[in-house]
Amino acid sequence: MKPAQRVSQIQPSATFAISAKAKALRQQGKHVISFGVGEPDFRTPHHVNQMAVQAIRRGQTRYTVVGGIDELKDAVLLEIETGYGLEFSRENVLVSCGGKHALFNLFLALLDPGDEVIIPSPYWVSYPDMVRLAGATPVFVPCSESTGFKMEPAGLQRAISPKTRMLIINSPSNPTGAHYRRHELEALAEVLRAHDGIALVSDDIYYRILFDGEEWVNFAMLGEDLRERTFIVNGVSKTYAMTGWRIGYLVGDAEVVKAANKIQGQSTSNPCSMAQWAAVAALRGDQGCVTHMVSVFEERRHYVLQRLNDIPGVTCAVPAGAFYVFPNVSAFYGSRVGGRTIDGSAGLADYLLETVHLAVVPGNAFGEDRCIRLSYALSMQDLEEGFDRLASALKALQ
Ligand code: PLP
């Protein structure tokens, strides 16, 4: 049977596709190293697991209210107060099944067919397709390596049209690790202040994973006028190594949050009850696990950049956060090896997977074909082995 028209407008998630290819090779007994993973390689903290076990024992295993239990909403409010210095109320919070779900609800709640959504490129793979599923049109603003892949005011200005309804900022970014500093956001805000109908979506899922003492800042923190139209999306997946628990949240204008809650009520209902309790423990509990994880990622970033800089032909912007690097490998495009020509990031990713069993995500999935995305959420031993393989495979192309 033929699926609905809207499905033909979207692609399967590229990161999941790479993981599937890597898994197939592993099943054939190959030792695959995956730089494709989009999740921390740490265990969910013990006290978080314990809270979920307790919730099961206490019988907290039934439907909860659609938008999340009050205890979790309060924990989110406290997080936003301490992490952002912003005060909201429960009516401004919706808890969903992951940050991805929070974004999807938000897009459905805010976007109408014909609306345009500005997405700085490179972008997280799911934004354009989620926007399309909501019937709106993504408008990309290419951001170059020379600006650290960050959008500049002129690019934003050029992209704005009477149809613009939303701008999405993801900082620190997946795939580049780029983080907008206060003065950079202020410069963008100056443009946005002349267009007060544009909703600002701040995907802050990596906000705790920042290096070198970088200051955390987003649009909502720049002033009341911007706070009113900023929608904060965040969650516990990356910060607490809780990707499987599926808890994320949306914080923003009460009317839109109510609309998103209505959509959630007619689709998934509440997020998993015990996962909500686990998220309360994560947000309220000891934050030592986060500090530890971030310091490990920071050390790895140092190593990864060193290894990349040692490979002739590769350039790489220094990421300020998250756990990805997005090196430019376009110097190798056009090379011929084993009867094939490497014609772009997808071809290079296939070549790396097939020849040295190294999984990477092609940059074309993020809107930048000159690059590939490497995650360093894996052990030092695997990183060392992976970079040996990358260096030798790229050398063979020279
Ligand atoms: N936003 C970005 C930029 C991400 O990279 C991810 C996950 O990869 C998400 C949102 C969604 O995370 P989750 O749905 O696990 O909370």
From TrEMBL:
Classification via Gene3D superfamilies: Aspartate Aminotransferase, domain 1 (3.90.1150.10), Type I PLP-dependent aspartate aminotransferase-like (Major domain) (3.40.640.10)
Pfam family, one: Aminotran_1_2
Segment forming the signal sequence: none
Cofactor: pyridoxal 5'-phosphate
Domain of life according to the entry: Bacteria
Entry EC number(s): 2.6.1.-
Single GO MF annotation: pyridoxal phosphate binding
Residues covered by the Aminotransferase class I/classII large domain: 31-390
Alphabetic keyword roster: Aminotransferase, Pyridoxal phosphate, Transferase
Alphabetized InterPro entries for the sequence: Aminotransferase_I/II_large, AspAT/PAT-like, NHTrfase_class1_PyrdxlP-BS, PyrdxlP-dep_Trfase, PyrdxlP-dep_Trfase_major, PyrdxlP-dep_Trfase_small
A GO BP annotation: amino acid metabolic process
Family: Belongs to the class-I pyridoxal-phosphate-dependent aminotransferase family.
Designated name of the protein: Aminotransferase
Organism: Desulfoglaeba alkanexedens ALDC
